[in-house]
Amino acid sequence: MDRNTSHPPHDGLLSPVVAGCWRLHEWGFDVAARVRWIEQALELGIITFDHADIYGGYRVEALFGEALAAAPGLRERLRLVSKCGIKLVCDARPAHAIKSYDGSREHVVASVEASLRALRTDRLDLLLLHRPDLLADPDEIAATFDDLRRAGKVLHFGVSNHTPSQFALLHRRIPLVTNQLELSPLQMQALADGTLEQALDLGLPPMIWSPLAGGRLFRGDDEQARRVRAVLEALGAEHGVSAATVAYAWILRHPSRPVPITGSSRIEALAEATAALALRLPAEAWYRVWQASMGHEVA
Length: 299
Known about the structure:
Blueprint: E1 18-20, H1 31-43, E2 48-50, H2 55-58, H3 60-70, E3 79-84, E4 86-87, E5 100-101, H4 105-119, E6 126-129, H5 138-150, E7 157-160, H6 164-171, E8 179-182, H7 195-202, E9 207-209, H8 216-219, H9 223-239, H10 243-252, E10 259-262, H11 267-275, H12 283-294
Parallel strand pairs: 1-2, 1-10, 2-3, 3-6, 6-7, 7-8, 8-9, 9-10
Antiparallel strand pairs: 4-5
């Protein structure tokens, strides 16, 4: 197994693998179990935990905050990421008439304050705009971010699901540290639309959501999933690791230094992700996965 030494923690903010909390409300964990899950992730070297205000219908951050309150020493050992900018229609936000995006100063500040209360912390280590608001004023967003930073409420900023031009527009006004985007052996648009090239050019590692294609990679019965799964399993057998570990290693192989987010209640699943840090796939193996996904050879 080749060692992969190109993915150290990024300035103490992003661990090489991030724990995703999107489905925390579905796990049925009591407070003690949530504390233990966080502790076990930390034991694996995962110090960064990814949230969004909307997760669980605006409930997940509070569940995580209860765990931090129950074990106060945890907060200084981890980094908290949250996202804002999507307005969901749900019981927790009755004033939202329709689902929409909102990057206004009023909404961003209110969202940060709500996240801080829910997470029971005095600062977010990283705040991301969850989706690009087509009506947002980038100068207003930059000024809002700067005010939040000066107040000590948010230490770093980034975006999620932004195109290269949308990222550049805001990055010219205030430094961003990442673009959180989708990438998996079944969803490779980021390899073609310029987002990974931009991240590489700027030296800003992208955060990767849905690295296992939302489970479709191993549960999907479509032709693409079957082709890719067969290659991942074969490579796993060659390298003595699980097919999931190979999938993470495939993502980590890109020179932009991607940071995959793994959102599972099972610590074993998180361990499969961190095991990929010790596997550097040969280029031909990487292209075997690419070819299986695309269904054809490179041109």
